[in-house]
Design goal:
The chain is of the alpha+beta class and 133 residues long. The protein has helices at 58-64, 68-72, 78-97, 102-124, and strands at residues 2-3, 7-10, 17-20, 25-26, 29-34, 38-43, 49-53. The chain is built from four helices and seven strands; from the N terminus they run βββββββαααα.
């Protein structure tokens, strides 16, 4: 099975935040049982078991398809996301060091810290994909 990179999407339409993190992957899956309602599989190398059940009600079918418009939306590039977070970090740092207003200093410090942490996570993320054995 080929998997796209993991994607983080915030907001109902994905306009707020939409970025891929990590690489594409391919894994071996064994199908142990399959009929029109149920599929039981196992990871070919990990042995992890998967159970999938088909949606039988119309409301379940609609809910199962909610993700399609989000995945059709083009994700923000990692470079662009890091540029925006870098700008927020710089702005926050400026406000926390240069400004004399205490509220601006605190807000700037929080903005700088959060943008730095999120940028660090995005820059170093493997998307949860384990490297090596």
């Amino acid at each position: 099975v080929l998997f796209d990179p993991p994607r983080i999407i915030l907001g109902k339409t994905g306009k707020l935040f939409n970025i891929n993190v990590g690489p594409t992957t391919s894994v071996l899956l064994d199908t142990l049982y399959c009929d029109e309602y149920l599929r039981i599989g196992m990871g070919g190398t990990s042995g992890t078991r998967f159970v999938f059940k088909r949606c039988l009600e119309a409301k379940d079918e609609d809910e199962a398809k909610e993700f399609i418009p989000l995945l059709n939306r083009r994700p923000t590039s990692k470079r662009k996301a890091l540029s925006v977070l870098g700008t927020l970090f710089t702005t926050g740092l400026y406000a926390s060091i240069i400004r004399r207003n205490a509220l601006l200093r605190i807000t700037g410090g929080i903005l700088g810290l959060l943008s730095f942490l999120l940028g660090s996570l995005i820059a170093t993320s493997t998307g949860g994909i384990e490297q090596g054995d």
